[in-house]
Structures are given as structure tokens and as C-alpha cells.
Known about the structure:
By secondary structure, the protein is mostly beta strands. Helix content is 9%, strand content 14%. It has two helices and four strands. The protein has helices spanning 55-58, 90-95, and strands at residues 24-29, 39-43, 78-79, 105-106. The strands form two sheets. It has a two-stranded antiparallel ribbon. Helix 2 (90-95) links the parallel strand 3 and strand 4 (105-106). The relative contact order is 0.15.
Amino acid sequence: MPIFDISIPISSSLVVWPGQDAVEMRHLFHLDQGDSATLTRFSMTAHTGTHLDAPAHFIRGGQTLDAVPLETLVGPALVVDTGTAEQITVPVLEGLHIPPGTERILF
């Protein structure tokens, strides 16, 4: 089975959750400036660009991302278009007609 990396590279132009700060990237050192290495500092929230919401994001006592096995994230996935929805709510999910047994969804 081919594996597709769907992650978007981190940059200051990434979409962020409304009201959150934009991605901030700053070179602390850079080879092009004569430094011995390139080192970048970046600051962003978890809801930036391509991301996975951990169960703990919505469920008290739920798993944090470090506890989610990598195998959970690899395999067949249903890709859905949420149209103009600004948030993925229960009515939006119900309107997608997700087949029973679906294990992975990409919105």
C-alpha cells in the first residue's frame, strides 16, 4: 500500500485557528550568515496547518498525541469535503454520510 504524506510544510503563511497567533519563525543562526549551523526558532499553536486533534483535546482524560500509536495514523482513509463549513460540527458530520466502519477521515 502506498503511503502519502499529506502534511503541509511549516511556514508563516499557514492557516491557523481563528483568533490564534500566526506561525512565527526566526533564524537564530544561519550558515548563509557565516554561522556554524542553521537554527530556527518557531512558535505556533497545535491548530496550525496539517494537524491531528488528540482525544484529550475534547475528552477529559483522553489520550494525548504521544500516546496515539503511529499505526493508528497509517492506512486507508476516507477523504471528505466539508464545503464552506467553518467548523466540523455534528450536523456537518451527519451530512457527510460517513460509511459505518470508517477508521480514518481526512477533512
